[in-house]
Structures are given as C-alpha cells and as structure tokens.
Amino acid sequence: MVNLEIKMEKQPQEVVLIGAGIMSATLSIILKKLNPEIKISVFEKLDKIGFESSEAFNNAGTGHSAFCELNYTPQGKDGNVDIAKAIDIAKQFETSKEFWSYLVDNNYISSPENFLRKTPHMSFVWGEDDVNFLRKRYEAMSKHPLFSDMEYSEDFEQIKTWAPLIVDGRNPNEKVAATFMEIGTDINFGELTREIFKGLQNKGEITLETSHEVTDVTRLSNGKWAVKVKDLKAGNSKPVNADFVFIGAGGGAILTLQKSGIPESKNFGGFPVGGQWLICQNEEVINKHFAKVYGKAQLGAPPMSVPHLDTRVIDGKKSLLFGPFAVFSTKFLKEGSNLDLFKSVNLGNVGFLMNCGLNNMDLTKYLIEQVLLSKEKKVESLRDYLPEAKLEDWFEQTAGQRVQVIENQNGKGVLKFGTEIVAAQDGSIAALLGASPGASTSVSAMINVLNKCFPELMKNQWNETLKTMIPSFGKDFNDASLVEESRTRTNATLKIK
Fold it and tell me: 278 phi and psi, to 5 degrees?
C-alpha cells in the first residue's frame, strides 16, 4: 500500500511540470536556481508554448497591481472600503517585477519591451453612490506607499486629459469620478512565457516537449509519481517518473489533479466561464486612448468579468479591447474538450457542486444574460465607457477559457475568487487552480507552491538563493523607502518609463 504520509526531506531531483504556461515557466527557473542539479521535464499538450491561458488575447494583459481593479477593494455595510486584498496583490506584482528584472539581468529575457509596456491604469465610475465609493477608495489607498502616486478627480476636463474618449459625448452634468496611476502596465504574458522557456532551453536547463499530453498520474510504492505522457504526433505513450509534479495546466489542471487520486483533490470542483472581447482597430479611434480603464462589475459577475476598456499592443499592433463578456462552454480550456465539465463531475463532488449552483443563482442569471447578448447590446454596454462608440468600428473575438473554482466546505460548495494551491500532504504533487489575478502574481504563486510543498527547504537552504532573485524577499512593501528603491530599479531594468 502506498504511504501518503512520507514527508519530503531531500531536494527533488526529478520534476515534471504539466503545461507550458507562465506558471510552469516561472517555477522552472526558480527550481533550477534553487537546485542546479535538478532534472526538469515540461510537457505541453499544444504544439506551441504559452498559447492557452497565457496567450495575449486569452487574458486581459493587465499587470494586476490593484491600481484600477475595483473588485479588489470591496465596500462593507458600514461604508468603509477594505483595501487589504489590493495591498496584497500590489505587493505580489512588485515581486513579479523584481523577478522579471532578474531574468533580464541574467539573460533569460533579452528585450523586456517585447512583453511589457507602460500603460496608465484608471478606475472610472458614474452616479453618486459609485463616485462616493471611488472617493473613499482613493482616500484609503493613497495613504499606502504602494499607491501614493494615485491621482483622483471628479472634473471632466482633468479626466479628459487622462482618457478623452470616456468623456467625449457624455452629459456634462453627469456625476463621474476617476483615479489615475501612470505606472500601470500592459503585459503580453504569452510572449513573456516564450521568452523564459527560450532562455531555459538555450542554457540547456530543462527538457520541454510540445504536442505531449499527460494522460495519467499514478503514485508508486516508493513515493514517486509515474506520469503517463502521450506523444500526440507519434501516437505512442511513455512513463516518466518524478519526485515532484506540478500541474499548471490552466483550467485543465483540475482534471489532472483528480487523476492523481490524492485526498485533497476530492474537495474541489469547477465551472467553466469563457470570455469574448469587443475589439477596435480603427486608428482614428485607438490613437485617442492610452490607458486601461476599469469599472464596476455587474451583480453576480465572476471576477474575470469586470468590464474594462484597454489599450493593448499585441505583436506590434495597437488595438482597443472592451469586455470581457461571458460566454458558456463546457470546455475547461480554449483548446479543450466539450466533455471536460462532465468528466470533472463524480460521486465525490456532485453534491457540493449542485449546492453551489443552487446558492449562486445570481451568477447563473448573469451568465445566461451574457450568452444572450447580441453585438448591438454589447456595444451599448461599451457606450457606458465610450459614449460615441460606433457599431461598425468594433468586432467580436473569443478570449480565453477559465474555470471558476468550487471548494467543498462542510458539504457546501463555495465559489473561490482567486487562485488556489492544492497539494498532497507530503508535498510531492501540487496544482494551481483559479484565474484571478493569475499571471501577474505568478512569482508569488510559485513561491507559495514551494512553501507548501518544501517548507523546511524554504526556511533553510533555499532562503538566501531566493533573495538573489528577488531582493525584497522576506521584506515588507509597507515601507515607503523599499517601494521607491524597488520600483526605481525594476522600472529601469524593465524599461517602464
């Protein structure tokens, strides 16, 4: 009988990472620097790297630093705005920037401008209640060093200097408000992922195989994992043994996690939510807007459905994107199977999944309404942000597929709005579930994986090495001098000017 109580005391020598996205790319480098002798094998089902959840049009491309995302700062019944989550996410994004700077300095990334561009972040609201909320949010956030540069205005002319299209054509008597953070970013996470893997392969530090699907994960009597990998081009399968397995396959992670059979996997299920953008490539329009403008989500909407009007530069081409609008599919990945949702439901989770559905009828109602929206109705929604939007200037394009995580808590299914790390008790296998804030906080997410799976190594042997990659590691971004020092260094290296 396999002993699942064995604790890992040695550094892993053989590692398998499932999925060639930003999470696996990040974990590959961190592990290789912590243990240069480690053997890392990465398997990707698609024939390309970073073309599922990490691909540019499959996500918002926002460097999520909580500058503009209003769902990270909920307002309580007492009227006060809670900024704790915003502070945490902002800290994690600064950690990511430090790590990416390390990659530039150590020749894993050659040209940061290929994946990252400075793009101001704005929040924009209208109506007295939401204006009062945004004012309170600004007053609370601007006191913290991470947000001390935030600007606020209820003046049409000032807002017009930041983003003229959201003011043009609007009733001058309408009550509006906006915040502005100049140091926001637009990020092509697909390109970042490909740059990292290219650097790793050029240095001979990993083995990466595309068109290879992991079809099963089985625990061996010696505590290792047998990973069954199918070559989709040749048609044959092979076993690969590993001391440690990380499942970073986006929405598909939950299906592979369930195959592992670890007890922890039985407490999770998922519901897929797809997205769709409205895109404008009319140069006369897009040249008048340069910002990411986030608003408030509709009641019942999942976190990835917060509406925003974004300047994006993808493969050198500038566009405006608005959305995302929710679409329904039973796939867990954009390139997944229509059977994914059904395969994930079993006798162990069907009860709490049904309970979650019954207790979240507002989400169900929202999704149905979104699916029924015509393009004309979507453009009407856009006009809340861009009053003079013309139907003919915009076209629809499918975005990525996400899985809303549902956790079993005492028999009740609870929606989890964030990322969840699920790991075996002995730390030999782990999966990352969830979508928001996702890629922006990938470095902190992977450090959390290591903390959960290798706590003793993280406290001792690995601690000092992590500080060479992330200078702020172990420090607190509540310190204004640390924020200034870190941003000065990373903004220069990453060319955020």
Answer: -95, 130
Per-residue buried b or exposed e for 386-402, using 16+ beta carbons within 10 Å of the residue's own CB:
beebeeebbeeeebbbb
CA distance linking residue 307 with residue 303, whole number of Å: 10
Reference 292, options 317, 323, 326; nearest CA is: 323
pLDDT in tens, 186-203: 999 999 999 999 999 999
pLDDT in tens, 254-291: 999 999 999 999 999 988 888 899 999 999 999 999 99
Q: Quote the tokens at residue 327.
A: 């679409």
Q: Which helix (H) or strand (E) holds 96?
A: helix 84-105
Structure token digits, residue 148: 């001390």
Determine the 3-state secondary structure of 243 from DSSP: coil
Structure token digits, residue 439? 């890629």
pLDDT per residue over 68-103, tens digit each?
999 999 999 999 999 999 999 999 999 999 999 999
DSSP string, 326-349: EE--S-SSTTS-TTHHHHH--TTT
Annotate 182-219 with b (16+ C-beta within 10 A) or e (fewer).
Answer: ebbbbbbbbbbbbbbbbbbeeeebbebebebbbeebeb
Length of the chain: 497
pLDDT digits (tens, 9 = 90+) for 432-461: 998 778 899 999 999 999 999 999 999 989
pTM above 0.85, yes or no: yes
Angle between helices 22-34 and 189-202 (to 10 degrees): 30
**Within the chain, what is the greatest distance between any pair of CA atoms?**
73
Tokens of 135: 């004012």
The per-residue pLDDT for range 111-148, each reduced to its tens digit, is 899 999 999 999 999 999 999 999 999 999 999 999 99
Dig out the tokens for 411 from the structure.
């028999």
To the nearest 10°, report the CA torsion of 207, 211, 217, 220: -40
Q: Do residues 338 and 330 make contact, with C-beta atoms less than 8 angstroms apart?
A: yes
Predicted local confidence at residue 316, as pLDDT: 85
Rounded CA gap, 109 and 238, in Å?
32
